[in-house]
Amino acid sequence: MPFWSGETYRAIARCLASGQMIRGVDVEGLRSALIEHFGVEDILLCGSASLALELALRTCHLQTGDEVIVPSFCCSAIVAPILAVGATPVLADVSTELNLTVETVDAACTSHTRAIIVPHLFGNPADIDAIAELGNAKNIVVIDDAAQALGATTADGQSLGTSGDMGVVSFGAEKVCFGLGGGALISHSRGVLDGARETALGYPSIIHALRQLTAMFAYRRWRRWTLPVQRLIARGPEKNPHAPPQPYRQDNLTNVQAAVARTLMDSLPENLQARRARVQAYGQLLGDQAGLELIPHRPSSACLTQVVRVLSKRRSEDGAARVIQALGAAGCEVQGSYMPIHLLGSFSACVWDRLPYTERVWADLVEVPCEPTVSLADVERIASIVRSCAGN
Question: What is the three-class DSSP state of 217?
Fold first, then answer.
């Protein structure tokens, strides 16, 4: 569930009472707060991080045949903005930290490469500085995609989202600052984002904004009580993992989204401290367990989730599925991690060569929660079940 404070609810109430759900002063207030937080010259706010990525790519003036490198092990939503600008997604392998490295990026570069999108998966910083150096040497635009890593920093203390040529952060579902949606495109220099501002964006209707707000409360904030009803409604054919992601809207950020996001920035230090404490607890509880491998977080990680690799004893076993099933039976919602994009049937527009590490590990991975709304007692309970499954 989202980590909201009393100020978050008061901000929503102010928007409802004033009628400033769509337009209002909170948008510029959030923009100013983000400029101060990141120490940059310019920020463009929009309705989602996917849209922010598209706008970043539009500043590159890409043409048909130009290539954009992304990891195959990633949320498939990263592909849509690339296709929207007419470019070709090129899928690269990841390292043991499940992020791109300068080596995996370099292996995917061709004479047609024009941009590299570097996500920091699960809040853990990728080697963005080394990749940015490679991009500079090859005259390739590097986009620092910190959608999952708001608040994380590089080893030298630079905020993720501010490396490379441009950066992206998110206030969307299941992110570090889990708000009502919205994204931001970040630039160190004025003028870089002028091309992005040439794209005409609309505004959602008040009805759409109210539905979004209602859904957030019904499906997320009150999830503890509404989940049984949600499961009844969801009965039927399982979601097809090969289906393309839902299209994102070409909308400006609304005032209520900005109001919520601004309160989440205020509580970000407390949020990060709690997430890092949970990662530390998982390390203490599971780090020495045979049959398990914890994907490490760097000290400056935002710790979105903790990924556990479950090593099956026999080829016929699916250890990750066993862990997910056991946790589900105990009332803990967890999930496996991403199916690599190159294995999904709806992404034939992507190209790739060899992805050995991605193919070897993806099916063994389980994400366990680090949200502040998950208590340390819950972490102990989750770890106990995982240990029990690994020991069988």
Answer: helix
